[in-house]
Write a structure and sequence with these properties.
- The protein has 12 helices and 2 strands, in the order ααααααααααααββ.
- By secondary structure, the chain is mainly alpha-helical.
- Strands 1-2 form a two-stranded antiparallel ribbon.
- Helix 2 crosses helix 3 and helix 8 packs across helix 9.
- The two termini are 22 Å apart.
- It binds a DNA duplex (13 and 12 nucleotides) through helix 3, helix 6, helix 9, helix 10 and helix 12.
DNA sequence: GCCCAGGTGGGTA
DNA sequence: TACCCACATGGG
């Protein structure tokens, strides 16, 4: 079937970009906040919000726990959807406090299935946000599926577009090593940022024939 | 001025 | 299940 392509694409992208050391954040909690702020939002706008939070010494679980909603909203305004996102940040902190003693390191020691279930049960945390938190903040072996993943692998022909989130995640998790989940998602985002808007012709080596397939009508 | 961005949840048929 | 829509800012 087509699935071995998942591993092949990883090799191609990894040799092109090299290690990317994701997620772009200094602490696990910063990853969590970033994961909420980036919901349907360009990273450039998220960075503005993150920088505001840093400037105002708001980017800690303690500070955001104490902060009122309207204060959080002023800080995260550049990332858009700031009313919803401020509530989502509060709910995430509420989960950490009520279920994990307010401790992210304690949270990280809990088993993956329960963690994922609790995150998904939190209003405003869907599968992508949950998995970004699990993988990049808590170091759990989960592959993150995002719009870039669907776009790139749709163009390649590996996805038809009707797959559910869980179906796409399973395709990746079955075909690559857990140690590469972190780097692979980073490579996908990097690829999309570098190529999708520039309309670079799709070019990939066929794993069976070893021939390079170039389709000038298909673009990443 | 228009389109889109590293989603999510709620409503409707 | 399969669509629709609201949510909001900032860059191209």
């Amino acid at each position: 079937m087509k699935e071995p392509l998942v591993g092949r694409v990883y090799s191609i992208l990894n040799s092109h970009f090299g290690p990317l050391y994701w997620w772009p954040a200094k602490t696990p909690f910063e990853v969590m906040v970033g994961a909420i702020l980036t919901q349907n939002t360009s990273w450039a706008n998220v960075e503005k919000a993150i920088n505001l939070l840093k400037q105002n010494k708001m980017l800690s679980i303690k500070a955001l726990r104490q902060a009122k909603l309207d204060v959080i909203q002023k800080n995260i305004r550049p990332s858009g959807f700031f009313v919803q996102k401020s509530e989502r940040i509060k709910r995430l902190i509420g989960l950490i406090d009520s279920e994990f003693k307010g401790s992210i390191s304690f949270m990280a020691n809990q088993p993956l299935p329960q963690l994922r279930e609790m995150l998904l049960a939190t209003n405003g945390i869907g599968p992508e946000t949950a998995d970004s938190i699990l993988l990049y903040a808590l170091q759990k072996p989960v592959f993150v599926v995002d719009a870039y993943t669907r776009r790139i692998f749709g163009r390649i022909g590996l996805l038809v577009g009707t797959e559910t989130y869980e179906e796409v995640r399973c395709v990746f998790e079955k075909n690559i090593e857990a140690e590469t989940y972190n780097q692979y998602h980073a490579l996908i985002v990097e690829t999309a940022k570098n190529f999708c808007k520039k309309r670079v012709p799709l070019c990939i080596e066929c794993p069976l024939s070893g021939l390079k397939l170039c389709n000038p009508k298909l673009f990443l």
